[in-house]
UniProtKB/TrEMBL annotation:
Pfam families: Bgal_small_N (PF02929), Glyco_hydro_2 (PF00703), Glyco_hydro_2_C (PF02836), Glyco_hydro_2_N (PF02837). One of its GO terms (cellular component) is beta-galactosidase complex. Belongs to the glycosyl hydrolase 2 family. Residues 707-972 form the Beta galactosidase small chain/ domain. Its EC number is 3.2.1.23. The lineage of its organism: Bacteria, Pseudomonadati, Spirochaetota, Spirochaetia, Spirochaetales. This is beta-galactosidase. GO terms for biological process: lactose catabolic process. Keywords: Glycosidase, Hydrolase. It catalyses: Hydrolysis of terminal non-reducing beta-D-galactose residues in beta-D-galactosides. It is an enzyme of class 3 (hydrolase). GO terms for molecular function: beta-galactosidase activity; carbohydrate binding. Signal peptide: none annotated.
Length: 974
């Protein structure tokens, strides 16, 4: 079929479409919707290219019985028609704008519907989202063309609709010239992926309108486009249904004032209801009174400084692709709200048009982003070159397209109070296209801020930009130290927003608290949005042990692809929370406590309310005091501090023993927990760890081994490697293989950069060498001393020191390490001892340390110190791509399987049925094979997690980088 090459013409984005308008669904005078949902079962056939399409298929009398039947909305790739592809930066097609490949998968959709056409009515077809470009036909007649996937397009079909049966046909192309602006980090799904409607409207109606309502009560209703000359009645009611205003217009602006309005904000999302009526039709629009502006480099919302803390959110579903239903969206929003986030950035395109109403109702600040991303230009000329970044941004040819996408984003969503900032797009360089677009938005809407990170990026790389029409400086993944130094510099006058930070890929993010602290140190920092909400993946069936099987980039055999970089969310594809989400939610808790004063018999606490607009009334601080896991006292404190205020409360203290005692507080609103924290209120007596003489020991040696035995045990130590070779207790061997000294962990996704250095230094291939040893055995104690080196293959020793293992008659082993690290090496993943214990497969674990979630030096705010009991199998965090997981920081006591260990100084431990090598080698969780043993790591320390998969290197304070290592721990076998 010969189609007009609109899809390769940068000057043509739409043909036959209505001008963009505010999103609404009109109703009749009785409040019944007049739309007909055309989504459902459609006929479909795929062709290799537009030229291969049979032109008879768009005709009204074509026999569709031989065509497939598919659901609409849907993504063709998940229906098996087109190969799945995930790519981040690389374009999926050659970079040759405006042209697209000759082999361009093209789908023909067809459906029949019945219409009762009436005189004096107008009829429209409304598409909420089609990817990438599409031609529309009704009864064989061309209706129009459009090519912005994530913004609605509307077609007037009044003259083409017939009374009775009608045939709607849509030809959808996977690629168009718009593909060059749709290079978002996502699966490249195509098809009709949002709903399609038939709208039945009176001839005289409101086509487009804008409503603004500021914090002072001023309301303006502008009628931007009318069909005919309707008589308009407007009324505004409060949430209780009380009419506040009633007025009429022939299309002129309606302005009025509401005295002392109830203001809208994310904490108290109070909405009024506006009804706009014409004869035979009415439109209902929610109205929120709010104002946002900048004063002294600080963003004020309704006159108060607000921290905008939330997440980037793609629309992605592992079962339906780009189609995300209202029910699934509501589930997302409820989860985001439950984890204390108040902001959503619609990365990197507009969400479904009804999404914004949900956000207004539930209470979210929204950064509304346009459907623009073209970072694939970096790979011109054979490599990633920063000087190519502005290629499209500076092109006059692309200006109409970028303007159009921003215009549609604004016009469709303009009446939603949740939107406080427009975003021009993402990672597309900077130049005339964005300068002109920002200027247009400022002139079109002065009630919101304008954002675009690309300008800041260009400045960083030494290019001049005209960013006067951008209201904020935007950053991605800066170091905390950079943000700390940014605002003392007087040349920085705009507020700062971290549009992306704390990359949540795999096990992470690990440095959330540090960012929140820097946000709160500097009022000029608005906040930031985590990258990102959900893992992107496709569902590929079930696995008996691991549940759903999910595929990521490359699993479908596509090229190019970016592997598992799409698995970077706070939740799994099916929306199970990652531990990173639980961590983030607790760091964002709206209340925090600190010790104001310690007395002999009581403690005075100060509670800080981090809400900007609402008090803590209705929230209780439910507390308990524990010493080494033993409950000593408990109670409840009703809170009432005003917004951004503090209050104090006193708690009577019990008598403490010699261990650390903690005050644990949970903030609860009814049965809903908003967060928790732990305060050390009594520091225990620190004792040097030692083992007592208890029963006789028998010691002997061979050329290679030391053998120590006692009451029911026999231990064999390797003179060559300074490790325990065998541990027989009551006649049973407890070690499946010898203990090992280890530096390696299965790299996390956030180790993806540093692991290259670790691998270069062969830290994954170390061996221990004992250069000398001795044994001093008495009747009740045997002391084994080893001078040892821990060395990577082909490299000098990374650790040199002394290991001492003292064994008493009860079989307790005091392990003492005094060593020095070679400072020429990069910081270490971990240092500790690995035990491969014989296993029955259902071991239990009891520990005193940070739990119940996996915890690390920089990822422990969701956890707290207490005594926890768990099955070992439940301690495995089942990341889609296996990696280091399940460690517990700050432990002083652990019993797992047959091993018991404790120390006076905190250590980390990990218990799993998978070896480090298995975790590192498997590409998917369902490929993991248990070792048959219980794999236990006792670590002196492990480096933190960070967010280095896309962010900065792990902060120095979280690195295992010290020169001197002093470690003592006691372990035994049961």
């Amino acid at each position: 079929m010969k189609l007009e090459k609109y899809y390769e013409d940068l000057s043509v984005q739409h043909v036959g479409t209505e001008r963009s308008r505010a999103y609404y669904m009109p109703m009749d005078a009785d409040g019944k919707g007049t739309e007909t949902l055309l989504s459902g079962k459609w006929k479909f056939r795929l062709f290799p290219s537009p030229e291969d399409v049979d032109d008879k298929m768009i005709g009204g009398d074509y026999d569709t019985s031989s065509m497939d039947e598919i659901p609409v909305p849907s993504s063709l790739e998940l229906l098996g028609y087109i190969q799945n592809q995930y790519t981040n930066v690389n374009y999926p097609i050659p970079y040759d704008p405006p042209y697209v490949p000759a082999d361009n998968p093209t789908g023909v959709y067809a459906m029949d519907f019945t219409a009762a056409k009436k005189d004096g009515r107008k009829y429209y077809i409304y598409f909420e989202g089609v990817d990438s470009a599409y031609f529309v036909y009704l009864n064989g007649v061309f209706v129009g063309y459009s090519e912005v996937p994530h913004s609605p397009s509307e077609f007037d079909i009044t003259g083409k609709l017939v009374n009775g049966s009608n045939r709607l046909a849509v030809i959808v192309l996977k690629y168009s010239d718009g593909t060059y602006l749709e290079d978002q980090d996502k699966f490249r799904w195509s098809g009709i992926f949002r709903d399609v409607y038939l709208l039945d409207r009176p001839e005289n109606h409101i086509a487009d309108f804008a409503v603004t309502a500021d914090m002072h009560g001023s309301v303006n209703i502008s009628f931007l486009r009318l069909s005919g000359n309707p008589f308009i009645h407007a009324s505004l009611s409060d949430k209780e249904g009380n009419e506040i205003f009633s007025g009429e217009s022939r299309g002129d602006v309606i302005s009025f004032a509401v005295p002392s309005p109830h203001l809208w904000n994310a904490e108290d999302p109070y909405l009024y209801t506006l009804e706009l009526s014409v004869p035979g039709e009415k439109i209902v629009q929610s109205v929120g009174f709010r104002s946002v502006w900048i004063e002294n480099s600080v963003v004020l919302f309704n006159g108060k400084p607000v921290k905008f803390l939330g997440t980037n959110r793609h629309e992605s579903n592992p079962y339906t692709g780009a189609y995300v239903s209202r029910e699934d969206t509501l589930r997302d929003l409820k989860m985001i709200k439950a984890y204390n986030m108040n902001t959503i950035r619609t990365s990197h395109y507009p969400s479904a048009p009804w999404f914004y109403q949900m956000c207004s109702e539930m209470g979210f600040y929204v950064v509304a982003e346009a459907d623009v991303e073209c970072h694939g230009v970096l790979y011109q000329e054979g490599g990633s070159h920063q000087w190519n970044y502005d290629t499209i941004a500076r092109s006059d040819d692309f200006l109409p397209m970028i303007l159009d996408r921003n215009e549609r984003n604004l016009e469709v969503n303009k009446n939603n109070p949740c939107i406080f900032m427009w975003s021009l797009g993402n990672e597309s360089g900077y130049g005339k296209c964005f300068e002109e677009t920002a200027k247009w938005i400022q002139e079109r809407d002065d009630t919101r801020l304008v954002h675009y990170e690309g300008a800041t990026h260009s400045v960083v790389h030494g290019r001049y930009v005209d960013d006067r029409y951008l209201d904020v400086d935007s950053f991605m993944y800066p170091e905390v130290s950079f943000m700390d130094s940014y605002f003392p510099d007087p040349k920085h006058s705009k507020p700062a927003f971290l549009c992306e930070y704390i990359h949540a890929m795999g096990n992470g993010p690990g440095d959330i608290e540090d960012y929140i602290e820097v946000f709160r140190r500097h009022p000029e920092i608005m906040g930031g949005c985590a990258w990102e909400w959900c893992d992107h993946a496709t569902y590929e069936g079930d696995d008996e042990k691991h549940g759903s099987k999910f595929w990521y980039g490359g699993d479908a055999g596509e090229f190019p692809h970016d592997g598992n970089f799409c698995l970077d969310g706070l939740v799994y594809p099916d929306r199970r929370p990652h531990t990173g989400l639980i961590e983030y939610g607790n760091v964002l808790r709206p209340v925090r406590a600190e010790i104001r004063e310690m007395k002999d018999d009581s403690i005075i606490l100060s509670f800080r309310n981090y809400y900007s607009f609402i008090s803590l009334a209705g929230i209780n601080a439910v507390y308990e005091i524990k010493e080494h896991g033993k409950l000593l006292a408990e109670g409840t404190i009703p809170l009432k501090a005003e917004a951004d205020g503090t209050e104090t409360a006193s708690i009577k203290l019990p008598h403490f023993g010699t261990d650390d005692a903690y005050l644990n507080i949970r903030y609860k609103k009814g049965e809903i927990e908003l967060g928790h924290e732990q305060l050390l209120i009594s520091e225990g007596v620190k004792k040097d760890i030692a083992i007592g003489k208890s029963g006789k020991v028998h010691a002997s040696e061979t050329d290679r081994e030391y053998i120590v035995s006692g009451d029911g045990f026999e231990y064999v130590f390797d003179k060559r490697k300074a490790v325990l070779l065998s541990a027989v207790v009551n006649g049973k061997e407890k070690l499946a293989s010898p203990m090992e000294w280890t530096l390696w962990r299965a790299p996390t996704d956030n180790d993806r950069k540093i692991k290259l250095q670790w691998k270069e230094e062969h830290l994954d291939k170390v061996s221990s060498k004992c250069v000398s040893s001795s044994m001093n055995a008495e009747d009740e104690l045997a002391v084994l001393s080893f001078d040892f080196h821990l060395s990577p293959v082909s490299r000098q020793p990374v650790i040199i020191g002394t290991v001492e293992m003292s064994v008493n008659g009860k079989g307790e082993i005091l392990l003492s390490v005094s060593a020095e690290r070679d400072m020429n090496y990069v910081f270490l993943p971990r240092f500790g001892a690995a035990f491969h214990l014989t296993s029955e497969g259902d071991e239990k674990c009891s520990y005193y340390g940070y739990g119940p979630y996996e915890s690390y030096v920089d990822k422990r705010r969701a956890s707290y110190i207490d005594r926890f009991d768990s099955e070992v199998s439940a301690m495995h965090e089942d990341y889609i791509v296996p990696q280091e997981n399940g460690s517990h920081y700050g432990t002083t006591e652990v019993e797992v399987g047959s091993l018991f260990a404790y120390s006076s100084e905190p250590f980390s431990f990990n218990a799993s049925y998978y070896t480090v090598e298995e975790l590192e080698g498997a590409r998917h969780n369902y490929e993991l094979k248990p070792s048959g043993n219980l794999e236990v790591h006792l670590d002196y320390k492990m480096s933190g997690i960070g967010s280095g998969s896309c962010g900065p290197q792990l902060m120095a304070k979280y690195q295992l980088s010290e020169r001197n290592i002093e470690w003592k721990i006691i372990f035994s076998f049961r």
